[in-house]
C-alpha cells in the first residue's frame, strides 16, 4: 500500500503555496482591505460621511431621491444604495451631461454632498479582490475564475499543513515563538502558530471560495440560482400613457408591511412602463447578506409580483446569500469585521513566511558542489 512520507507531504504543502504565492498574497491583501473598505471610506473621504449632529431620523429613500432631483431637475434616477448608518446613500442617475453619475446624499439632512462619475473605493476594492478587474464576457470572467480557484490552493495548504504538524493543537495551550534561535526557527514558529490559530478562518475562506467557483460555473452555463425580476404584462398596461398610481414611497410601505423588520439596501426604479420597483434589503437575520429580502412591486396595481426571504429560499439560493457575510465578516457588524481583518493580515503574512521558508529550504537542498562553485563562476564572469 502506497504511503506518503512527511518529506513528501512537506513538498506537497510547498507546491500548494509557492507557485502562486504572489497572486495568493495579493488576493489576501485586497480581501483584507475590502473587509474594512466602508470604514476606510469614512476615515479618508469626508464627502462620504453621513454626519448627523442633531440626531435626526433617516429620510426615506423617496426623499433621498427628491434631493437629487431638486439639485438636478433633468436627472433620471436609476437606483439607490444604502450602506452603514455612518455612510451616505449613493444615488445612481443619468443626466443630459452625465451618462453615469453617483450622488452622495446625506440621508439625515438631505444634502447632496458630492457627485462622482467613477466607481467608489468600496466598489474598486471589491472588484479588484473579486475578479482582478478582468472583464466579464459571455457570462464569465477569467479573473473571477482565477480568484475562486485559489480556494483549492488554500484548502490544499490547510490539509497538508495539518498532516505535517500532527500535534497542532498544542499551539493553543502551549504557543511557542522562539526569537533567539535564528531566523529559520523564528519563521517556522511564526508560520505554525499563525496557521494553527487560523484554521477556522482558512476553512471559511476556502469553503466560501469554492462556492464562488461553483457560482461562476453556473453563471457561465446560464444556470440561474435566483429568478429574474418579473415584468408587467403588456395586457395589463393602460391604453393611454399616464403616471403609475403606485410611487416609490407606497412600494416601500408595501414591502415594510410584508417584512416588518425590513431595511432597504438597494432600490431600483422602473426603467420603462413594464418595469417594476425592485426593492432589496435585510431583515432580522445576521447570517444573510443585505439582499436576502426582496420584493418586486407592480407600479400599476400596487401588488407584489414576486418576493424572497430566507424562509422561501432554496438551498443554493441560501448559500448565495450567506457566502458574502461569512467571507467578508460583516455578520456581526464592526467587531466581526475587525476579527476578519486581523486574520486576513495573518493569512497574508503566512503566504509570505511560507514562501520564505520554502525558498530557504530549496537553497539549502542545493548540491554542495554547486553552492561552492557559484562564487568562482561569478568571479570568472566578472573578469
Short description:
This protein has 383 residues and is of the alpha+beta class. It has helices at residues 6-17, 21-35, 37-44, 61-71, 121-131, 142-164, 170-173, 183-197, 199-220, 248-258, 315-328, 334-364, 368-382, and strands spanning 76-81, 89-95, 98-105, 112-116, 263-268, 277-282, 293-297, 304-308.
SSE diagram, text form:
Elements: H1 6-17, H2 21-35, H3 37-44, H4 61-71, E1 76-81, E2 89-95, E3 98-105, E4 112-116, H5 121-131, H6 142-164, H7 170-173, H8 183-197, H9 199-220, H10 248-258, E5 263-268, E6 277-282, E7 293-297, E8 304-308, H11 315-328, H12 334-364, H13 368-382
Antiparallel strand pairs: 1-2, 1-5, 2-3, 3-4, 5-6, 6-7, 7-8
Helix pairs in contact: 1-6, 2-5, 2-12, 6-9, 8-12, 9-11
Can you give a write-up of this model?
The chain is α+β, with helices and mostly antiparallel strands and 383 residues long. Helices cover 50% and strands 13% of the residues. The chain has an eight-stranded antiparallel β-sheet, covered by helices on one side. Strand 5 and strand 6 form a beta hairpin. The relative contact order is 0.12.
Please provide the count of β strands. 8
Oligomer: single chain
Percent of residues in beta strands?
Answer: 5-15%
Low-confidence stretches: 368-383
- Which overall shape is indicated by the principal axes computed on the Cα atoms? elongated
Q: Helicity, in percent?
A: 40-55%
Q: What is the ordering of alpha helices and beta strands?
A: HHHHEEEEHHHHHHEEEEHHH
Amino acid at each position: 500500500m502506497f504511503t506518503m512520507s512527511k518529506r513528501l507531504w512537506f513538498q506537497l504543502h510547498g507546491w500548494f503555496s509557492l507557485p502562486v504565492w504572489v497572486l495568493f498574497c495579493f488576493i489576501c491583501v485586497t480581501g483584507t482591505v475590502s473587509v474594512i473598505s466602508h470604514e476606510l471610506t469614512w476615515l479618508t473621504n469626508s464627502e462620504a460621511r453621513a454626519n448627523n449632529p442633531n440626531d435626526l431620523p433617516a429620510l426615506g429613500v423617496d426623499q433621498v431621491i427628491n434631493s437629487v432631483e431638486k439639485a438636478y431637475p433633468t436627472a433620471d434616477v436609476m437606483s439607490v444604495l444604502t450602506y452603514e448608518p455612518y455612510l451616505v446613500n449613493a444615488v445612481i442617475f443619468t443626466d443630459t451631461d452625465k451618462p453615469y453619475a453617483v450622488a452622495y446624499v446625506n440621508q439625515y439632512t438631505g444634502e447632496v454632498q458630492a457627485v462622482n462619475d467613477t466607481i467608489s473605493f468600496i466598489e474598486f476594492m471589491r472588484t479588484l479582490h473579486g475578479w482582478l478587474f478582468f472583464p466579464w464576457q459571455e457570462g464569465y470572467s477569467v479573473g473571477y475564475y482565477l480568484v475562486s480557484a485559489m480556494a483549492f490552493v488554500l484548502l490544499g495548504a490547510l490539509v497538508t499543513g495539518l498532516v505535517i504538524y500532527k500535534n497542532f493543537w498544542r499551539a493553543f495551550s502551549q504557543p511557542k515563538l522562539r526569537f533567539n534561535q535564528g531566523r529559520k526557527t523564528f519563521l517556522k514558529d511564526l508560520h505554525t502558530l499563525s496557521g494553527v490559530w487560523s484554521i477556522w478562518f482558512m476553512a471559511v475562506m476556502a469553503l466560501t471560495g469554492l462556492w464562488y467557483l461553483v457560482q461562476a460555473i453556473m453563471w457561465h452555463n446560464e444556470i440561474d440560482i435566483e429568478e429574474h425580476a418579473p415584468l408587467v404584462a403588456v395586457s395589463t398596461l393602460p391604453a393611454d400613457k399616464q403616471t403609475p398610481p403606485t410611487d416609490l414611497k407606497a412600494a416601500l410601505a408595501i414591502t415594510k408591511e410584508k417584512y416588518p423588520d425590513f431595511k432597504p439596501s438597494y432600490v431600483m426604479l422602473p426603467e420603462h412602463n413594464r418595469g417594476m420597483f425592485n426593492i432589496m434589503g435585510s431583515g432580522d437575520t445576521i447570517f444573510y447578506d443585505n439582499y436576502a429580502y426582496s420584493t418586486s412591486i407592480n407600479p400599476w396595481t400596487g401588488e407584489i409580483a414576486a418576493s424572497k426571504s430566507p424562509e422561501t429560499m432554496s438551498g443554493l439560493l441560501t448559500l448565495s446569500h450567506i457566502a458574502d457575510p461569512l467571507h467578508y465578516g460583516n455578520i456581526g457588524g464592526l467587531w466581526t469585521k475587525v476579527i476578519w481583518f486581523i486574520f486576513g493580515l495573518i493569512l497574508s503574512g503566512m503566504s509570505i513566511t511560507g514562501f520564505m521558508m520554502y525558498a530557504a529550504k530549496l537553497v539549502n537542498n542545493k548540491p554542495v558542489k554547486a553552492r561552492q562553485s557559484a562564487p568562482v563562476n561569478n568571479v570568472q564572469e566578472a573578469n
